[in-house]
Design a protein that fits this description.
Blueprint (H helix, E strand, L loop, with lengths): L2 E5 L2 E4 L4 E8 L7 E7 L6 E6 L6 E3 L7 E6 L4 E6 L8 E9 L2 E4 L3 E6 L1
Parallel strand pairs: 2-11
Antiparallel strand pairs: 1-3, 3-8, 4-5, 4-9, 5-6, 7-8, 9-10, 9-11
Amino acid sequence: QVQLVESGGGLVQAGGSLRLSCAASGRTLSVYDMGWYRQAPGKEREFVARINRIGGSTAYADSVKGRFTISRDNAKNSVYLQMNTLKPDDTAIYYCNARIVPTAYWGQGTQVTVSS
């Protein structure tokens, strides 16, 4: 089993940047496909970005494509989400996800608030 802890959230003005980190313990992240999801108030949790186990393949939601970049450092057992050109619509709790079918693990989330 793996434990995930997100960090790096905060309050930023529209157009600004944040870098989220997800640190893992309990098991090496290198066996997992990793992802970031987010949940805004009153909305369902939605997919943001994904990266495969070795970092050779990534995928993004259309709403963040070109602005967000997911990366991983298996040596540091960490995954990152670089968020640029942030918009108020990006305001949400961001969750880290580790997946090895059929099991998925979630962190507790980190709040990102983008002011207009």
